[in-house]
Amino acid sequence: MIELFFLGVGATFPIKGEGMPCIAIRRLGEIFIFDFGENCQLEFFKSGLGVNKPLHIFISHMHGDHFLGIAPFLQTLSLQGRKKELTIYGPKELRDHLLNTLNLDTLRFPIKIYEVKEGKIVDDKEYYIEAINALHNIEAFSYIFSEKEKPGKFDTIKAKKLGIPESPVRKKLKEGIPVKIGSKIIYPKDVLGPPKKGVKISYSGDTRYNEKFIEKAYKSDVLIHEATFSIDDEDEAELTGHSTSRDAAIVAKRSNSRLLLLTHISARYSNKNKLLSEARELFRRTYIAYKGLKLLIYTDWKALEILFNSIY
Fold it and tell me: Could you read off the pLDDT of 8-23 as tens digits, one per residue?
């Protein structure tokens, strides 16, 4: 199970109740944050994500609404007693910004800053994170978080027939490691059911419609896509490097995603339901994210439980 927190969902102009872009994933106590606009730390602490948990921050691009909240957040973590190392990923200019804004030596915890290039940027035993070049008016990235497949259910009946004792040998097989019993080699596929699919969450950042992102976001459980403009303003979307609500819906449909959440809607639209309707004409399972929304996502998709309030 993965928890998905919407700490901020707005665009450039600050609107009460929306906040700047900031999406957090919590998986087994480890936290991944995508973009960190101004004042997002307020929602972070309100959400109970903690001070000293493993934490990784991914910045999509160097427009202020997507990164200006990092420096004060790091200072607050230090004042609150954080000790664990924190990693930050983003465009090459991000390092200089942090070095010029903060005296990193005064922080009570170590920081590692990585310059992002397109491709797999994190490869853990249980998950990986990819960066895709976005189509914005400056260097920008979309990000995809994917859990790796998990071994299937252990078949105790088959194990007994194969003479596998109840011992650490079974644990190795459950972890996908072949074992030798006597002169016979037992492979995990001999005693395990079909592998279990992991959760996949795709985050567009700021971008025009992007075919490459569609390819990489294929079969996302949750697709979080910017919808800055209505289809009535698609010329402006193209000019400024943003997407319309219809663009987002096309991405969701063509990527065969299960759920589409719209974010980064321009403040010019007092009636956001117009954009929701535009998107739902092409992709029915579309919703508008709001600040404070929290989702629980299950690997077998038995449920997508919506906490706090209804999603719309």
Answer: 999 988 788 899 999 9
